[in-house]
Amino acid sequence: MKKTLLIGLASAWLFACQTQSGPWADFVKCGANPCVAEAMAVKDAFLKDPKTLLGQFQETYAKGDDHVVGWLYILRDSMLLNEQYGSTAERYAIQQRIVAAAKAFENDPNLGEMARSVLGEIETLAIISETEDAAEPSGEVFTGTYAYELPGDGGTGELLVGRTAYDKFRFQLTVVGKAPAHNQGVLEGEANIHGNGASFSTTAYGGTCTLEFFFDENTVKIKTTQGDSPTCGFGNGVLADGEFRRKGYDDLFLNGADAEMAKNVQGEWVSATDPKAALKIADGKYGDVYAGEAMGAWPYLFNPKCPANCNPVAPTPCLQVFGQDDVCYAVVKADGKTLHLSQIGGTGNTLVFTRKK
To answer: What residue ranges define each of the domains in the chain, with the CATH number in brackets?
Structure first.
């Protein structure tokens, strides 16, 4: 399908395809109305069963109607590029799901042309241009424990997050439904980070379950964008959707010596060579202090073994500090009383600190 399909869009909506039923037929029949609700229903149907919808698109287009372009325009203007619809991360995640659904059929001998038409309109939308780094994994602190408790015995939820890499985190999600059944759901996995959000998908329970995570300063919102209770491995009527509030910053996936060292690096520290220089490592932030004045505080990640992007000389514990320039410090010693750090790729000198009294 070529861009010339855009011509005559408004008049094309006045015709209806009588041989189809479902969300696509409803959209085709909506005529000159705004059709936003119908377009959203088509989007949901497309994500659930792209093959069927592409076939319906093809049938409509074969009749000479431009309804597909109309749908793509409404989808673009009312949702994907509409800041009032949701955050950049939310809309970017939806865009990527539509692109993935269409890409699966771009080389199909029957549906490929229609799939490529969808890709041509959706894949190039510059959603991330609203914030240039929206798709770049954020350096913000995701690691920690989040939870909610609904009033009136309406249900509870807990989310544990442990960042395993710059662009991934491990999670354990537990949800308990409302009384009297208190049906439960437990889900574990590794999510891919994009901007201040992340996505996770699994087919382990007989269908596709996709969760989107949207992080704010001390909250995370979870939305099930594909699947239901059974396909996500949850009890009847249980979903993870909702807002979880931060309860702590510790990585509860660490254990033994790793957990002890992660705890030992936290606190307020004074330089052994310059009493005016100090560090404050707390609440997921690494802060420099000089002469009592805070010089800046940046998110940090404790790694039991330095990741490859730190270029470590040995498999040693380290702190990744996500500032204007990301810096990695090998943790030479952390016994709770003293802290020895050595910048990886630096001069090789060891910075020695003692805990502030």
So the answer is: 3-130 (no CATH), 144-248 (2.40.128), 256-355 (2.40.128)
